[in-house]
Amino acid sequence: MEPDLNGNEETADSKSLAGRLVGAGTDRARRAVGVTGIDQALESAIEEAIVRAVESEAVERSISRIMEGPVIENAVRDAMKSEAVEQAMLEIVDSELTDRLWSRILDSDETQKLIERIAEAPEVRAAIASQGLGLIDDIGRGVARVTRALDFAFERIARRLTFRRKRTTPTDRAGIITRALALSLDGVIINLVMLGSTALIGLLATAVGIDIGDLSGAAYAVGGVAWLGLGSLYLFVFWSLSGQTPGMRFLDIRIEHEGENAIGPKLALRRLVGFWLAAIPFGLGFLGVLLRLDRRGFPDRLGATRVFYINPAGPNQPHLPPVVDPMEEVGKVSPSAEEPEPGPEPVTST
Prior knowledge:
3% strand; 66% helix; mainly alpha; 14 helices; two-stranded antiparallel ribbon; 4 strands
């Protein structure tokens, strides 16, 4: 037996009787509370108190201070640095669910419309065009620097082989290599136009039932004459209007007459006649570009024109500075710099 609070021993019967009395009292109290609705009233009162506490300005200010304070930021930073979060993120990225989501996004009509709208935007097209033109210009300037150096190198070799004195007079006139490459580029353009025209004529002939394979040699002769006519028209138009063909523009050289780059149809025609006359005797009429100090061939002398190196990035595209050898000028002032000094003969555009 165990002593009670007063030190008296408590019997098993008395303990059992006391427990039964307490239990019976608790059950009656619970039933009384349930019958009278006190428990529901207390529950409603507690719920209302919690809602009012959450909606109070004090709680709102407390939550704002917690969100703006360093506690949340530090907790998020620590969580992002944990290996468990990193592993979970990697598993999400590598999961098949992510692949399916990306596939659905990329295959959706909304995504396709967005891509088409971006591609058709004038700003995007203008940016792509400017980048493309800028790349072509950069390539042309690089090639022009190389061909300019080759002009002087081939000139030295030719003058040495013909027992002429080495050049000592600076020049800003275009040499044989740069001109030949520019003419070759123009020839490629003319051939592409001829191929396109020939293909179109072939389609038309097939449509009307004409077999081009049965044409005689006279037809091919006519085709050759047409090629010469197209090439002549090509040179005549570009020379008379701007003093530059596309090939010359790519290599930064220009034809001029007394400072004018638009030489006009009369001089362009004279130069064209001189061009074909110089080409007939195996191109001997162009040797003046290689051997003369003024680098003028027969077409230049007949047309009273000169061909200059120019700086397309400078104001009004001035001539490059005259030099004896561009390789010797590299350590001084680069002749192909973006802002070279204007040449002795200013150009007035029309």
